[in-house]
Amino acid sequence: MCSVTKEQVYNELRKIIDPEVGFNLVEMGLIYDVEVDEECNVKVTMTLSTKACPLHQMITQWVEDAPKSIDGVKNVEVNLVWEPEWNISMAEDNVKKALGAL
Amino acid sequence: MFNISKDIAPPFKMIEPFFKFGSIIYLISIFSLLFLNSNSNLNDLNIVGWAHLFLLGFVMVIIFGAMAQLVPVVLEVGHFSVDLYYIIFPALSIGAILMVAGFWFVPVVLPYGGLLVLIAMATFLFETLMTLKKTEANTLTVKSVKYGNIFLTIAIIIGFFMALAIGEGVNVDISRFLPIHIVLVLFGYVTVTIIGLSMVLLPMFGLAHGYDDSDVELAFKIVVGSVIAYVICKLIGLNFIANIALAAIVVGIAFYLKQLLTLYKIRARKLVDIWYKHIYTAFISLGVAAVFGILWLLFGWENGLKVAIWLFVLGFFTFVINGHLLKIIPFLVWFERFSPLVGKKRVPMLHEMLPDKDVEYSFWFSLSGLIVGAFGLMFGSDSLFKGGVTLLGFGAIFMLITVLYILKFDVKDV
Q: A77 forms bridges with which residues in the sheet?
């Protein structure tokens, strides 16, 4: 039985900050889902704010690396999706407020 | 979906000289305006020399440097051979200096400068076209790169023959080909390229999503079609229809501005930072330049044409380029020096890499210079024009300080 929780994975993902906007991926609403199976394999479903993001590969690599710092995590899979398309309503209120969208 | 990686991103040391050189030439080109008479004819060789200093040494150098980074992003494939940019920079920079020297001081060096510029641009075109062959995407941005580069090819061939005419006395009808050269470069290449790239960069920086892009599609078709019509009509001597094609370009620009208004309304990022200030200024300048251009077409108002060119070149081109330099250069430096440190130590945000005061001084001096200079040209007042140029010059000094600051930004500055 795996003792790693989704919350632990989210906490690690919160450490990844987009250097352009200055917010972490979770509060930006870019992480759509986290699954942890019984063998402690992690699957992160995420998107990016734009397909043209020049940090595309780097950010997905950071997402793949982040959960590995949790004891017990075996494999990490990143599932990058473009549907549903990201929009500002997916972000947390502090992000909307800081960007002037609230 | 393709994405940029350490393996195919252009090396920092390759791109850095483009931005340093471009910013230095921008400063020189602004102060060299002080030695020009604002009441000169636009065909005056001193004005032509200045135009090449500004457009080749600043606009083209910066666009080519930015393209080294942006081509993989917008075309969604890696470069055919990014190392070719090692040829492009010295050929373009030395060629631009020789051409300006040819126009201003020693006409005999003009063809040599022209040849170097031709080599630089042919290399750029070859690299870009070979990269285009790899992409399956057919977005507006991809089409803009294709058409922009076709127009640039024709423009530089015409330009080279005109350089031979001035430097070596080759028999070329300059009065016939100069307007074609200008329209191909300013509208066919620079404007079409900016339209295409802006449809990637503006939504990305403004966080604008889910919009209807039919206005920019129409704008693109009108501008491209009008440039082609202008060239053909000028070649066969249909000057009246060529002028209608020029007016149609203005209509195309109006649709482009309408698209930008849509992006502006739906953007999620509403904070007005220094990039936004530059972009606002650039596109307002473009709109006002279009109005003055129409006034010139309708009433033959020569000062109106000068104001239109001033706002188009020093308002639209300059502010759109300088605004994006404040995004692109910090990103390149961050990518080079800080991305390996993510997760290991605190890394700066991109906006933290800007010297806030210098950036603000640069913007406000440049904006006030742009406005004062425009009034100087409108009223035919050389002293007012020179006052505007001086203000622009202070803006250019602070811009250069900013660029050098960002390029030197390192771990110790965090």
A: A43
Question: Backbone phi, then psi, for B106, in 5-degree steps?
Answer: -125, 95
Pairing relationship of beta strands A42-46 and A31-36 according to DSSP bridges = antiparallel
Facing residue for B271 by CB, picked from A17, A49, A100 = A100
Structure tokens at B288: 């006002």
Residues 6+ apart with CB under 8 A from B226: B187, B245, B246, B248, B249, B252
Could you tell me if B266 and B211 are in contact, meaning their C-beta atoms sit under 8 angstroms apart?
Answer: yes
Pair B404, B20: CB distance under 8 Å: yes
φ/ψ bin of B210: left (φ > 0), alpha (ψ from -120 to 50), beta (otherwise): left
pTM, entire model: 0.86
Boundaries of every domain in chain A:
6-97
What's the rounded Cα separation, in Å, for the pair B196 and B146?
A: 10
User: A6-97 belongs to which CATH class?
Assistant: alpha beta
Query: Is omega for the bond preceding A84 within 30 degrees of 0, making it cis?
Result: yes
Q: What single DSSP character describes residue A71?
A: T
Tell me the longest C-alpha to C-alpha distance in chain A: 45
Find chain A residues with C-beta within 8 A of B8's C-beta: none
What residues have CB less than 8 Å from B312, skipping those under 6 apart?
B186, B285, B286, B289, B293
Q: Provide the number of CB pairs (under 8 Å) joining chain A to chain B.
A: 77
Nearest residue, CB atoms, B209 vs list A22, A53, A85: A85
Tell me which DSSP letter residue A19 carries: T
Q: Is the ipTM of this complex over 0.95?
A: no
Say whether B116 sits in a helix, a strand or coil: helix
Q: State CA B201 to chain mean position distance.
A: 14
The continuous run of DSSP H or E covering B164 comes out as helix B140-168
Asked if residue A99 lies in contact with residue B269, where contact means CB atoms within 8 angstroms, the answer is yes
| Cβ within 8 Å, pair A19-B349 | yes
| Cα separation, B156 vs B162, whole angstroms | 10
CB contact under 8 Å between A49 and B3, yes or no, is no
Cβ–Cβ < 8 Å for B358, B400: no
- Per-residue pLDDT 10s for chain B (414 aa) are 344 444 456 888 889 999 999 999 999 999 999 988 777 777 788 899 999 999 999 999 999 998 888 888 777 778 888 899 999 999 999 999 999 999 999 988 998 999 999 999 999 989 988 988 888 878 898 899 899 989 998 998 998 888 888 877 788 888 889 999 999 999 999 999 999 988 888 888 888 887 888 999 999 999 999 999 999 999 998 989 999 999 999 999 999 999 999 998 888 888 888 999 999 999 999 999 999 999 998 898 889 999 999 999 999 999 999 999 999 899 889 888 888 887 777 888 888 999 999 999 999 999 999 999 999 999 999 999 999 999 999 999 999 999 999 999 988 777
Contact A56 B351 (CB under 8 A): no
